[in-house]
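Side project, low priority. Logging it here so it doesn't get lost.
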Amino acid sequence: MNSLSIVEFKYNLEKVEKGYNNRTLYINLTDKKIMSKPVTKKMKDTFIGGRGFDLWLLWNALPKDRIIKWNDPENEICIACGPMGGIPIYPGSGKSIVVAISPLTGSVMDSNVGGYFGPYLKFSGWDALEIQGKAESDIVILIDGDNGRVLVESAEGLPSESHSLSAALTEKYGGENKNSISVVSSGSGAEHTWFGCLNFSWYDPRRNFVRYKQAGRGGIGTVFRDKKIKAIVAKYSGSVSPETSHPANLELVKQAGREFSKEIITLDPKQNEMAVIGSSYLVSIMNEFDLLPVNNFRFGSHSEGHKLSGGDVYRKKFDPGYDGCWIGCAMACSHGVKDFKLKTGPFKGKKVWVDGPEYETIAGLGSNCGIFDPDHVIEANFYCDTYGLDTISVGTATAFAMECYEIGIIDKEATGGLELTFGNREAALEIIHQMARGEGFGWLVGQGIRRMKKLFAEKYGADPKALQDIGMEAKGLEYSEYVTKESLAQQGGYGLALKGPQHDEAWLIFLDMVHNLMPTFDQKAEALHWFPMFRTWFGLNGLCKLPWNDVTPPGNENTPEPAKYISHVKNYARCFSGVTGQKVTPDELILMSEKVYNFQRIFNLRMGFGTRKHDDIPYRSVGPVTKEEYQSRAEHYDKQLKEKVGYSPEGESTEEKMAVLRNYRESEYEKLKDAVYKRRGWNSNGVPTLQKIRELGIDLPDVVRLIKKSQG
């Protein structure tokens, strides 16, 4: 054993069968204990894999007699892939899903991420990894799928920044075969903020360096560093082919993968060009339809929005060539900027590779902060990644602080001399560097909007209600980067999301606002049932959702429900059947997700959340908070008052019109809650009914007790 090793665990290397290893890996850093746990048929039938396995492992690991905090040793970080994960011919099959109790929300957080770690964990013998306890000093965990061993080793002497750390560990454990290594790491920013992210790496042989994707949401990187984990390394040098998962029907899997990949390769160049500019293509579309967040979500467009546009800008910025974050993915959307010269921070003057930016980063660090400089976004992107910071939370939290500065809630004394106005690039970057150092006003921004609101009210006398209106967080999680004022369905997509306002449950803006395909509450509720359930299914199986709806199949417009891309849904069902041997229909995919989705809602209930009041959202995501916002679209709002409220705005002040509009829009959101709860089989307080959990087969004794307790 290496002299720096703290504990070692050996295991037998066995083949994956029908997408499963039928065991999970448990590591307790406090007790220095490592063990294998069996995966039962009941576990697979109910929780499928991926996020489902993560939730089940965490549920059973937490003490039953009390609610823990995120930094208690009992909290776990759980990482899983899924039965369809790691199929190199199937688009988007390289996802990992991470679950933990979040610093920001105090409840269950799930975050999905690309990179090679999930498949390598699976091929190394494990369907999931759960890490509990805290180490005494910084450690590295090695899961060696070549030799059947797990090592916990000292991390002494390793760099803190993710890009340097991942490179060092890839060299150390990979040697001449760097392709065999995937590293999970975070950075100094995660140590000092509540929205630390995790970087999942892969080695890019063409460019000869390590790259990574982020599990960004909810501060799981902060939990990671609190446990004193410096990195987790998965090593797998074996072959990677469709046969590696030993599917039940190899030919069916190959057929489904070939058809899907061919369609993407043929159609993507004619549609969104994901393989050239990635999700940056969305910037110009969002700006055109008044959906791009500008100045803390005050507005949805800007005359300089084109300066951040994917087609105009990132076609030139991104290094050309194939860029998939998993082997063989036809989407190939993981782009980056080569030899970018940094202007600030500890690496000032150095040329670096920057993975991204993607749409959320461009909108969050750019337009939402009033900054329309792509080079600023690229630099901020690099530092957020290497410091281990979620770009969405950083952007939205900084934008909130900027608005508070501009309206006089805080001043230069509060910000430590920073002139934190919208558009100030230098101040925005300095906030990020301060987060990494754990000092200055950046440290406070790094605690998240919910804590900033509390402090600004207590220390500076700000009106809590006014802060609630403009503080773009719900459930404690900062909003992702879409303006929802004109889409009631998307307001629900954010507010009713289990973990907080993230678009990976439901992205309904265009269906609702642009195409008006769901004018009734029942139609909106149906969409807020089906889409979150189907999007959940990706996280159960180790899949990326982008191939599903970022490439439109031929003839899709002639299908009964084109927004569902039903030919793709059928392909997923075929491939799942091919891998697992279970013949399933598209409706049965939704049922799989319903079980896990309802279980996670109940998990929130266990943590002291998960009821109607926790689905409230800031008014800025519902309607105009300020006169300036109203007046920017006065004709639209006046028309709505006439046609939908039956109120004549002529001669009325802006303040009076805003009050009437607010009353109408807030009541509409409450009606939406009622409709969605009913469709999902929940009571009026947003809790799944006993009948619903029995129908789904998740009526476990602890679950039944929780629901009965919630009903008084």
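Brief comment: Residues 272-478 form a domain with the Aldehyde Ferredoxin Oxidoreductase Protein, subunit A; domain 2 fold (CATH 1.10.569.10).
Revisit when time allows.
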